[in-house]
Amino acid sequence: MRHLPYFCRGQVVRGFGRGSKQLGIPTANFPEQVIDNLPADVSTGIYYGWASVGSGDVHKMVVSIGWNPYYKNTKKSMETHIMHTFKEDFYGEILNVAIVGYLRPEKNFDSLESLISAIQGDIEEAKKRLDLPEHLKLKEDNFFQVPKSKIMNGH
Ligand SMILES: Cc1cc2nc3c(=O)[nH]c(=O)nc-3n(C[C@H](O)[C@H](O)[C@H](O)COP(=O)(O)O)c2cc1C
Ligand SMILES: Nc1ncnc2c1ncn2[C@@H]1O[C@H](COP(=O)(O)OP(=O)(O)O)[C@@H](O)[C@H]1O
Ligand SMILES: [Mg+2]
Question: Taking every pair of C-alpha atoms in the chain, what is the biggest distance, in angstroms?
Answer without folding.
Answer: 59
